[in-house]
Fold:
Amino acid sequence: MAIGGIIWEAIQRLGIDQPVSSTTVIGVAFIGVVINGITAFFFFHDRHKDINIQGAFLHMLLDALVSVGVIFAGLFIFWKSWFWIDPIISLVIAAVILISSWRLFKESLNLMLLAVPTSIDIEKLKLNLLENTEVIDIHDLHIWPISTRETALSVHITVNSESYNDSLTEKISESIKRNHDIFHVTIQLEPSNRKTNCETNC
Structure:
């Protein structure tokens, strides 16, 4: 909605040479660059650990870049009296915001729907599980976010009878946590010679 508002206002002003106070624009935008740039710097280190921090970092960084664009437009207005550059810069800013925030939007949507986080490569995870010589098959694999920082996994793994023990469970669990950034892991081992209810009772 915000991007749509910026685009709409910019298009309306494309054919109108509306006077702009360039010195005021440049001064206010410069303050915005300093404040937003410093704030973004504080969020920079932890931006990949939490989607909320990533959102705050992206918001501050984009605000700083927007202010840079405003300074650029203000300088040209002051120098050349090109008032048309103001809506052009607005369109550029709208495009930058849309492209930069799209990935964050998808991750936020996945979190709300309890979908697999975009940072998790399911196919790679399956291949890593099957690389264990004890593993015969995997099924009922489920991955979902439980917070902005934590992801959970549950899976049933068929193994050969000799490997049906707790040590294998711990080994696979640690491998998942280490290689895929998933810290809540539930594994159900199933021996390959396990009989179904029908095989037992029929």
